[in-house]
Amino acid sequence: MFIEAKKLIGLPVAAMDIQSKIGEIRQILIDPENGRLLGFLVSTGTFLGTKKVLSVIDIKDWDPKAIVVSSIENLIGKSEIVRIKEILNKKIFILGMKAVTESGKNLGEVEDILLDTETECVVKYYLKDLMQSRVFPAEKVVKIDKEIVFSDDTAEIPPDAAGASAMV
Which of 48, 65, 106, 157 could lock 164 by a disulfide, CB 3.0 to 4.6 Å apart? Predict the structure, then answer.
């Protein structure tokens, strides 16, 4: 199944054991080394808005109305998974990240990403700048750090572009 990341933000996380909402997705956590989905930063709604981490391996179902896990115990502390802790400390959040080409040309910022829930990978990046929206396949990503670097500025035309059928 493919799902846009923006549709996940604010989605409830439900636990099967207590058949209840245990949190809400606040941030998508992507490994910048390989574009794999690591998990989510989840707001638990408890005192002081505590945020926990949900690892993608603990997801039992990608329901359109909620992410389903086995137990509330699947929500863990932000420092319990080393790779996620590193990403949080470096503040590497894909949504809203500046995008450029290897030659330094500004492409705008990441407005959304398309995730494949089977492979747990980003397959497309939706970029937006003042003039246009463009879609880049994940294969064009060269590096992700404080900005996302694409090999070039050749993009797919977004499906909602009028009369679009070819590459830009």
Answer: 157
Residues of the chain by 3-state class (helix, strand, coil), percent to 5: 15, 45, 40
Reported as a single tens digit per residue, the pLDDT across 54-97 is 999 999 999 889 999 999 999 999 999 999 999 999 999 999 99
With a CB cutoff of 8 Å and minimum separation 6, the contacts of 161 are 133
Correct CATH for 7-90 of 3.40.50.1000, 3.40.30.10, 2.30.30.240, 3.90.1010.20: 2.30.30.240
Q: List all residues 6 or more positions away from 112 whose beta carbon is below 8 Å from its beta carbon.
A: 4, 5, 6, 95, 126
The ranges of the chain annotated as CATH 2.30.30.240 are 7-90, 98-150
Q: Phi/psi of residue 5, each to 5°?
A: -60, -40
Report if pTM > 0.90.
no
Return the CATH class of domain 98-150: mainly beta
Q: What is the mean pLDDT of residues 22-40?
A: 95
